[in-house]
């Protein structure tokens, strides 16, 4: 799987990104993260910060956070 979304269950920003990926018909894997920022070591390792959502596009070598940026990327590059 070349797309991975780090998300928190119930996070509206994560849901917006997930919905955009679904609407674009893009296959992706969701990595559910812990609610505590201090327990998000994997997110920090891949993105340099602990916030979600984070999208990893291995095929294109892209790692990004901030839902607005991700939504733009999905629309521009993946849809």
UniProtKB/TrEMBL annotation:
InterPro entries: GLR_AS, Glutathione_S-Trfase_N, Thioredoxin-like_sf. It holds the Pfam family GST_N_3. SUPFAM superfamilies: Thioredoxin-like. It comes from the Archaea. Residues 1-79 form the GST N-terminal domain. This is Glutaredoxin. The lineage of its organism: Archaea, Methanobacteriati, Methanobacteriota, Stenosarchaea group, Halobacteria.
């Amino acid at each position: 799987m070349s797309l991975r979304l780090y998300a928190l269950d119930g996070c509206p920003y994560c849901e917006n990104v997930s919905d955009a990926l679904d609407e674009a018909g893009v296959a992706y894997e969701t990595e559910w993260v812990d609610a505590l920022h201090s327990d998000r070591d994997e997110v920090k390792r891949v993105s340099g910060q602990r916030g979600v959502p984070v999208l990893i596009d291995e095929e294109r070598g892209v790692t990004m956070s901030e839902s607005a940026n991700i939504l733009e990327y999905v629309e521009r590059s993946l849809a």
